[in-house]
Amino acid sequence: MALTAGPRPPNSVAAMATAEILTQSGTLELPEALPLDCGQSLPGTQIAYETYGTLDAARGNAVMICHATTGDQHVASTNPRTGKAGWWQRMVGPGLPIDTNRMFVICANVLGGCLGSTGPASPGPDGAPWAMRFPVITIRDMVRAHVALLDHLGIDRLAAVVGGSMGGMQALSLAANWPGRVDKVLAIACTAAMPAQNIAFQEVGRQAIMADPDWQQGAYYGTGKAPDAGLSVARMAAHITYLSEASMHEKFGRRLQNRDAKAFGFDADFQVESYLRHQGVTFTTRFDANSYLYITRAMSYFDLVEEKFGDPGAGLLADVFTGTQSRFCVVSFDSDWLYPTPESRKIAHALNAAGAPVSFMELSAPFGHDSFLLDVPALDRVIAGFLG
Amino acid sequence: MALTAGPRPPNSVAAMATAEILTQSGTLELPEALPLDCGQSLPGTQIAYETYGTLDAARGNAVMICHATTGDQHVASTNPRTGKAGWWQRMVGPGLPIDTNRMFVICANVLGGCLGSTGPASPGPDGAPWAMRFPVITIRDMVRAHVALLDHLGIDRLAAVVGGSMGGMQALSLAANWPGRVDKVLAIACTAAMPAQNIAFQEVGRQAIMADPDWQQGAYYGTGKAPDAGLSVARMAAHITYLSEASMHEKFGRRLQNRDAKAFGFDADFQVESYLRHQGVTFTTRFDANSYLYITRAMSYFDLVEEKFGDPGAGLLADVFTGTQSRFCVVSFDSDWLYPTPESRKIAHALNAAGAPVSFMELSAPFGHDSFLLDVPALDRVIAGFLG
Fold first, then answer.
1. Of A68, A85, A312, B41, which is the most buried if we count CB atoms within 10 A?
2. Window B:290-349, CB contacts with A under 8 Å
3. Which class is A13-194+304-387 in CATH?
4. Which CATH code for domain B13-196+303-387?
5. Are B273 and B257 in contact (CB under 8 A)?
6. Is B37 a catalytic residue?
7. Catalytic residue at B165?
8. Is residue B4 within 8 Å of residue B77, measured between CB atoms?
9. Which ipTM was obtained for this model?
């Protein structure tokens, strides 16, 4: 049974790839500043990652998994901060759809994150935390860091890149901007350009954080205070969007929390209120508020056409994929109202128009946007089948 | 042309009803404490209201309009606080679907509100604002205040009660709990029991307010501070739920606000961000945060079966309407995801099962939940036709 090793010092990966243990943690420190879409370069960039399985001699069995907004690199191993199982433990492992007996799985904490990769909580050039001096990053910047990691691991071409939600955007961005670097692209429950409604929800989350006086213009590190109240509200609002109305009805309905009757007060009378408050509070124990600002900003900014051509009006989505050598699989869920099926259909149509091989499936699952993380056997079959 | 008179002293209504002007403001002070569902009674209750048109000699042409969460009594006259036109000016007036040439229209600020009716900002028995000492109220309590107003106006039976969203809940509650008091009931874009997802959004709004240190446990009156930041976030989150994804896409898309390119910062780059921030900030100039807490609490609590039988499991929705003498019209909008058509269909089915005359229509309109307030000619025709 593979065990998760503790964090390694930067650039410990060479030792790791040849090690016999199946699960390993690494932190890469980039030797040069990372160029960013905003025009700045980020010095001292660290990329924290996990790998599972063994890279084969031809270096051809690597699968990169890209995590979602508040995910992390612990895709199939215990998260050391929370003590919880990996977020896709059901999908990644020996004999599972992403089979670590055959594949070498890589998952890196995104740039801007707070689980080991460089983000606003990391020390800047002057040794003090970047805080809001951290440059505003994009989805492509996150992918640029992933590509640097692949370079470091000596992986010229991924067998596949897989991601749901923000992870799907990274997968598409990798395929579009580094077309030679990946064979199969599996984009789940995502979009090629963030829709207005999602931008709106992301803005609410940011405003909730920035409205909290403990945010202190982002310079809360070391003050003993953090905008936990604002971050909690942001998480509560976002969490609703990850579920479906039907699943909330099924899971909570109007059931009361540990009481027989309404209390005629402002405590959490309903289970759904108690659940949401719990989601909000526990989130603050594992996530940095400034990371939440930067990551949601990157999502709001995401537009594949703009990434590729510098202007959102400078081309069609199909043009982004012209000449691609990748094969694509695009998946949506019928109960997902945050990244609904039409967003995936647009991607599939564009890929078709570009002449790329693409299969597109809307799966039926009751859990809303979170379906990609939950028990949806149809998704397991799609992933296993597509990765082969 | 009718002009809005200024606020009148309490109990000025008798003079008003016989006046020749078509639009009049009044404030009723109830002579006795108002009994509430929580078991308490509210002393000194004031009910601020507007009327339009003239009550006929038989007192049979009265139509009560119930306003939504953040609405007010200024349904067809300029709101003195904002200087803006009445919120349903397009629907209520001479020759309009709710025709003030023939009908005597009444609209009261809800109990718990902040536009003249008694709410948490009103002085309590000790002369200081109630703040969070204000009792938690229900939709039925709001209706109880409306019924007291009808008693005072000498109106035994309304020709109709009309409301959208929370106004629709009041209309249903009036019909269910005071079955002899209304002939026609028009309930638009509402529910008979608040669904879990809506409770969740309401809870996010309340938590945003209560997370703001300037809320001061609700005792912010007279301190020179108010939880404007929290209230603004609450409004932003709620506002998204009032629109449809399609209407947000149509109205804003990913268009930038007064700039040619993304600023790589946290200002409002996108029009939708700027719009939402504006909605949040302006809301704080017209609404009291504690009122928002109490009114959304009343909505979360709303369950017609529980209102009628004291327990949500003590009967069917159809039982609520057994023996009703009212006629009903239930309307939903196909783009409304906050109070979607199945919620209205449940009401219609229950009314059918109770043997009540009911017509049920899902109207096609692009504006989401807000469709009932906007330019939807089909709704005009439905209302004009139903009211006759």
1. A68
2. 293, 297, 300-301, 303, 312, 337, 340
3. alpha beta
4. 3.40.50.1820
5. yes
6. no
7. yes
8. yes
9. 0.93
